[in-house]
Amino acid sequence: MSKTSATNATIFSIIVATAFATIFATIFATIFATADTPKRGETKYLRGAATATLNASSRSSKPELNFPLRLHRDQISVSGISSGAFMAVQLHIAHADWIRGVASIAGGIWNCAEGDLQRSQDVCLKHPEKVDVSALAQAYQAQAQGGKVAANSHLNKSDTRVWIFASAKDQVTRAAAADKLDEFYKLVAPQAQVKRAQHADAAHGFLTEAYGKPCGQHGLPWIIDCDHDQAGELLEAVIQPRPAKWHARQTASAQNYFRVAQNAPADAMMLDWAEVYVPTSCQPAGGNICALHVALHGCQMSTEFIQRQFIEHAGYNAWAEANGIVILYPQVAKSRANPLGCWDWFGYTQKDHVSQSAPQIQALQKLIQSL
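Now predict its structure.
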């Protein structure tokens, strides 16, 4: 490519990204208009009248992981909240040969947006009843036959576990979106074990027993105190391989958090570092071969927005410590094209954002393989 052509391509990319960001901000303004935004440099959570503030310097304070992990690499599970839920499903469909369980919290059907930002808002979030499940199932089958996602023989198995959560009070992702995801899995993978879960009063967010905003309020940090252990429920539903006995929670150790370089290419638009919780039994001295679960944050939930709150307080790590599960917390970056730090479920990295070659799916695969 000539220098002039390269310059023109760069200018074009900037123009496209700026236009995309303007559309993004306009479309999602109403969703996040009522969110409780903290002052610059701090993030607050509420528990009754109590408040707490986390320092932004905590984002990268953990030591880098410097020892190999012994993992069941062909039986990995993934979960996600909001945009992370859409990405969790995309990652599962792309790599069902080694991702055996998926949990979706306040998400929706695979490839719902079809690379269209406007559709992601108007159909997928606001009016999911308009989604044509049969058409998306056919699109999946075509991609599977073309080798762009995992073959259906890997997905349609009795040991495939799917857990889907929705709340009728969620004003960001309507509960009917979960119904469409349920229909999709039952259509393309009728042998899979699909479980549904719901909460009568929960707003949009990740549910915990004692951390976050009041249960019926959405907004930063998008973690809500509903007296409900969502992390434990979903892990027990989707973790692979199944432990002989599911043990009660143990206190997560502050010494068991580590940084992991994501090494993602620029087009994946991810941060430099992910974080991983490695239970004591999964470290070299413990000697165990452990399960791996990937936990994907939602929009405005990365370390850029809420520091380490999702990592420390979603509830995964206490169950991980007790049951020998390594928890990986990948991090997506905010950018001109993605100002809210969402995972790409609507095509801001490229229109084909659901296949094995999509930038973020490739980056997540390589990150998982690097452990």
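Residues 3-370 form one domain.
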